[in-house]
């Protein structure tokens, strides 16, 4: 039995934004200057106290480090940057409290661009990317962690501070602009590990018994070093940190969430740390090492936190299956702790808040609070024996059976339609034939267009909210939207764009809009999940077989088309993105669910075309995001995701031009998949990277239409004609003019009208300038 033992129930982290997004409101009020730092800190403190009390109430032991302190004002990677003192030199002139520096890094200010943000592993959460170079200063700053430890102790709770681990931290960092040629942040590992050692000593001195260090880099094949190298780095680092005697440092729980660590697990268990967590939802048990006894040997002095409760979805855990996994470990002689697969920051707070949800559906769900209770139940079973929790196991079984048999979960007609899908259904006519058939659209070289949404003004939001609450009737709302569409169409004509859009004023969100109109989805009231900083989204729940009772967008698109001679694009969100930004049923492969969504969209395209629309854009910004971290699973993913997009779009006749739009990530590494979508035109985010994507596309010999964004819509800045023309020229150097489209990076919904109109006018002039130069040449 290990000398330092974690209680048998734990979680890796808990949502920190507050049940009613209290932290968001407090932080934003501080940013506005409506409250001061002391007020913000007081609100945050109350929120933490309520969270800790709640976790104890839900069954986590108050003593022994079972409860993680996963609080963050903004982002856990940014917290690590502060704890390591790794403030980039370009922020060195900022004065004020730690919190002033912290938010300056997060959001920038008048004189500083913020740290870049990017997606955290394969989640929809964004972290602030550390900027490291040869001269980045490092020095331990444990004050925030120590303060919270003491605060919890006052409440009678022994918390476990949580840190992003050194290997993951550096592998997720980028080299700063000042870094020398060939410098890699991971080159600074030795310096950083020395600071972690100091942090650990400070935490022990402050009374921390346990610390949690997260190393999700262990499960990813998408980093700059191979997984084997990551493991070797982790071994080196934890040999060093582990060599500090416990007492001078807290006992260490090393975690590997978000994926499969089974191949590395025995080696992790052999490290001189006191506990290791494995994600047993995304990952699996190392069967061979378990059978041979090698796993038990590696874990002889180490506890294994079995991440059997899913921290990524909102479904009630199959307790019997989870318990069986944990029991196998225990029966193999391994000191087993029940845990979650990852930090619960990716799920909403509490199902009990969803009073408007159908009661039967609600009984199938588990948000963070329910998951914590499940962990506690399983842990009780582990210590007292299965019989002690048999009532809970039996109840779960009954509820899962109810879910499986409930109306709407499996609908024969939908299933037989999916079963009948053939390879043919995913193929459009040959490219050349499509090109010929689309000539009638009259699209010029370097055609100009936008990505779909126009600014969502306060007026639009107000009308939508009033309509939602029933304060204005259907007819009034419809009239409002029609007026808005007409305004946007006239504006685009005046600006001189070639292919128009209706502006998406009717959409609250590009996924939720469709979720509300499709059968098989439910929408929550308080199911907020942090997306980054103070931003949260409310993913819909895809619980049943998906079908489309009525057309979803035809009314708006056909009205827009009726107003103009120029082509108007129909606008749909693609099947992969709909799945990526929802909580999706876990009782069948994603590929099956994707086919159902794809067929619903296919019918929508049919209806759009019947109503006179000849260009349809199907957005897939999340295509890259769902790419599995595990290389072995990537091909299968790309196969079904590309297949779903093709199923959605391939019903269109050759004369219908299909567009898609990709943004938010680097698509260079999945260029074959982008090609595989077989869209006639693909718009892609590119302005900020100065057209980086053009090179892989050029090398690939991409033959269809492509619109690398020339206007960065992430800031209110108005890009000049010359600036946009220059980006068009960069693209034109690699891609023939007849393939090239000119468009912004993404939708304009977050922008204001003044800057949008000015920027789009410049965009049209830029395209014109480059066209004229080509004619003269
Ligand atoms: C995140 S991609 C957004 C695409 C959508 N059509 C829009 O313009 O807003
Ligand atoms: Zn976009």
Automatic annotation (TrEMBL):
Binding site for L-homocysteine: 451-453, 619
Keywords: Amino-acid biosynthesis, Metal-binding, Methionine biosynthesis, Methyltransferase, Repeat, Transferase, Zinc
Pathway: Amino-acid biosynthesis; L-methionine biosynthesis via de novo pathway; L-methionine from L-homocysteine (MetE route): step 1/1
Enzyme class of the recorded protein, top EC level: transferase
Binding site for L-methionine: 451-453, 504, 619
Binding site residues for Zn(2+): 661, 663, 685, 746
Protein origin, superkingdom: Bacteria
GO terms classed as biological process: methionine biosynthetic process; methylation
Residue stretches making up the Cobalamin-independent methionine synthase MetE N-terminal domain: 9-331
E.C. number: 2.1.1.14
Family, similarity comment: Belongs to the vitamin-B12 independent methionine synthase family.
Name of the protein in question: 5-methyltetrahydropteroyltriglutamate--homocysteine S-methyltransferase
């Amino acid at each position: 039995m290990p000398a330092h033992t974690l209680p048998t129930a734990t979680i890796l982290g808990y949502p920190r934004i507050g049940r009613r997004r209290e932290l968001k409101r407090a932080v934003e009020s501080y940013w506005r200057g409506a409250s001061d730092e002391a007020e913000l800190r007081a609100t945050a403190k109350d929120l933490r106290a309520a969270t800790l009390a709640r976790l104890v109430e839900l069954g986590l032991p108050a003593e022994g480090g079972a409860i993680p302190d996963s609080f963050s004002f903004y982002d856990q990677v940014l917290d690590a940057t502060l704890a390591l003192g790794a403030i980039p030199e370009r922020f060195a002139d900022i004065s004020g409290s730690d919190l002033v520096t912290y938010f300056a890094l997060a959001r920038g200010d008048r004189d500083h661009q913020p740290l870049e943000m990017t997606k955290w592993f394969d989640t929809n959460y964004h972290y602030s990317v550390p900027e490291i170079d040869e001269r980045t200063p490092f020095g331990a700053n444990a004050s925030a962690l120590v303060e919270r430890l003491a605060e919890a102790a006052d409440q009678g709770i022994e918390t476990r501070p949580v840190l992003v681990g050194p290997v993951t931290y550096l592998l997720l960092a980028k080299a700063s602009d000042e870094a020398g040629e060939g410098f890699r942040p991971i080159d600074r590992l030795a310096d950083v590990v020395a600071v972690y050692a100091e942090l650990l000593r400070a935490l022990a001195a402050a009374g921390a018994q346990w610390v949690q260090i997260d190393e999700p880099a262990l499960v990813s094949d998408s980093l700059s070093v191979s997984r084997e190298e990551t493991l070797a780095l982790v071994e080196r680092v934890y040999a060093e940190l582990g060599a500090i005697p416990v007492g001078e440092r807290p006992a260490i729980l090393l975690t590997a969430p978000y994926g499969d660590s089974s191949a590395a697990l025995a080696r992790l268990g052999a490290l001189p740390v006191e506990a290791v967590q494995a994600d047993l939802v995304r990952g699996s048990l190392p069967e061979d090492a378990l059978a041979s006894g090698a796993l038990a040997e590696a874990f002889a002095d180490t506890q294994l936190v079995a991440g059997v409760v899913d921290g990524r979805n909102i479904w009630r855990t199959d307790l019997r299956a989870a318990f069986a996994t944990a029991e196998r470990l225990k029966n193999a002689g391994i000191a087993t702790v029940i845990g979650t697969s990852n930090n619960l920051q990716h799920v909403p707070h509490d199902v009990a808040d969803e009073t408007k949800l159908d009661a039967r559906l609600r009984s199938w769900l588990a948000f963070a609070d329910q998951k914590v209770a499940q962990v506690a139940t399983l842990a009780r079973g582990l210590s007292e024996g299965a019989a002690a929790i048999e009532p809970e196991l039996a109840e779960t079984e009954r509820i899962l059976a109810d879910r499986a048999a409930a109306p709407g979960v499996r609908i024969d007609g939908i299933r037989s339609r999916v079963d009948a899908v053939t390879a043919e259904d995913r193929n459009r006519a040959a490219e050349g034939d499509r090109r010929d058939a689309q000539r009638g659209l009259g699209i010029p070289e370097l055609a100009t267009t936008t990505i779909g949404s126009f600014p969502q003004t306060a007026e639009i939001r107000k009308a939508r909210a009033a309509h939602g609450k029933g304060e204005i009737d259907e007819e009034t709302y419809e009239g409002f939207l029609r007026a808005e569409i007409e305004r946007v169409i006239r504006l685009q004509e005046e600006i001189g764009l070639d292919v128009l859009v209706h502006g998406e004023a009717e959409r609250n969100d590009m996924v939720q809009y469709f979720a509300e109109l499709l059968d098989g989805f439910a929408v929550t009231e308080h199911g907020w999940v942090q997306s980054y900083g103070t931003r949260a989204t409310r993913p819909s729940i895809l619980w049943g077989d998906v079908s489309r009772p009525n057309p979803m967008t035809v009314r708006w698109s056909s009205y827009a088309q009726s107003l103009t001679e120029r082509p108007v694009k129909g606008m749909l969100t693609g099947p992969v993105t709909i799945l990526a930004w929802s909580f999706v049923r876990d009782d069948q492969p994603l590929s099956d669910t994707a086919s159902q969504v794809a067929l619903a969209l296919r019918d929508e395209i049919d209806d759009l075309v019947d109503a006179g629309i000849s260009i349809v854009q199907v957005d897939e910004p999340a295509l890259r995001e769902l790419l599995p971290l595990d290389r072995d699973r990537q091909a299968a993913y790309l196969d079904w995701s590309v297949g779903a997009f093709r199923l959605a779009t391939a019903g269109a006749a050759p004369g219908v031009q299909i567009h898609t739009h990709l943004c938010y990530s680097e698509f260079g590494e999945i260029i074959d998949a982008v090609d595989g979508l077989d869209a006639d035109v693909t718009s892609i985010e590119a302005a900020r990277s100065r057209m980086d994507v053009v090179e892989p596309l050029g090398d690939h010999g991409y033959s269809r239409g492509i619109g690398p964004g020339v206007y960065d819509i992430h800031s209110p800045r108005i890009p000049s004609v010359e600036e946009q023309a220059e980006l068009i020229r960069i693209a034109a150097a690699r891609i023939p003019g007849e393939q090239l489209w000119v468009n912004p990076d993404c939708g304009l919904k977050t922008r204001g009208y003044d800057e949008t109109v000015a920027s789009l006018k410049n965009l049209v002039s830029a395209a014109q300038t480059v066209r004229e130069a080509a004619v003269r040449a």
